[in-house]
Amino acid sequence: MSIAEEPAEVKPPAELDRVLTHLRDHGAPHLMLDGAPTRLSGGFWAEMWVLSLAKGTRSGLPDRVVLRLAPDAQLAAWETTFQAGVAEQGFPTPTIRGFDFGPAHGQRAWCVMDHVVGTPLLTGLSGARAILALPRLATALPDTLARAAVDLHRLDPEPVAAALRRATGRVACVDGLLDHYLTRSRDLEDVPLQATLGRLAATRPAARPPTLCHGDLHPFNVLATDAGHVVLDWTAGQIADPAYDIAFTHLLIANPPLAAPKPLRPLINAAARRVAGRFVTTYRMLGTHSIDSDTFDWYRTLHACRIMTDLAGWRADGTIEARAGHPWLAMEPALQPLLGS
Length: 341
Hints:
This protein is 46% helix and 13% strand. It is α+β, with helices and mostly antiparallel strands.
C-alpha cells in the first residue's frame, strides 16, 4: 500500500464531522483539526485520510491519525477487529482509536488509527532499479517478512476469534473461504476454477491448531520505521494453518507485480524465486510451526484460486478496467498453470 500524500485541496470526506463527533464523545471532548485532512494515495479497497490534530485538544490521541473509510461495513468490522486484537497482544500495527460499523445512510463504515511514518519494504522499484536492488532484497526483504510471520503466528488466536464472532457473527476458518470461492466459481461459470477448487475441497490438509494469519503479508504492507517494522492492512486476516500466510507471501514474492521491460523479466523472475525460497527457509528456521510441502502446495493453489476468482468477478461485473495497476492483473499469467496442477 502506498502512503504517498495527495494535495490538501482534495474535498474532505462526508463522514468527517461524524468521525470527529465520535472521537469527542469518547475521550477527546475538545478535539479540533490542525489544518485540512490530507488524502492518502494507494490501496484498492478503502479510502484513507491523514488528520492532523490540534495541540491541546488531543486528550491522549497522537498528533496525527489515519481515517480509513470502507464501502463494506461487515468487512470493515472484520479487519478493524482483527487489527485491534493483534495490537492488544503487542504486535507492531497501528493502534485503533475509534470506529463505527453502522454508518448512516449513504455513508461508509470507518475506523481511526495511529498514523505511522515509514517506507514500504518494496517501493519505487521497476526495471533497472529492481535489478540494482536485488543484492539488498535477496536477504533483508525475505528475512523481515519471515520474522513478521513468525511473530504473528506466536500470538494467541482465541481472543481475536472471540472478538470477531462478537463483531461480525462469523467464524474465522479457511473452510468458509473455500466454500465461498466454490460458490463464486459456479456463479461465474468458470470451469477451470470449479475443477481446481473441487480438487482442493477433496484433499484438504489434516487439521491442526490454527494461528493468526495476515493473509496479505507482502512488502507493500510492511513499513520500515525508525522504531522497527509495522504491518498494515488486515482485510484478509484469517485464523488458519500458518501455511495460509507462508504460501501467499511466497506466491506473491515469486511472481512480483513489478513494471519492467520484457528483456529484464526473466532475470527479475529468477531472482524473485530465490528471494521467495529464502523467505520460506527463514520462516522454517525461526518459527515453531512446521510446514510440509503438500500443505504448502495446497494453500498456494488456494490463494491462486482466490486471485483468479477476484479477476473473473471483476471481468464479469465490468470493473476490470477500473482496477488497472492492481497486482492481481500482473500475476495472472503465472497463476494460470496452478489451476491445472
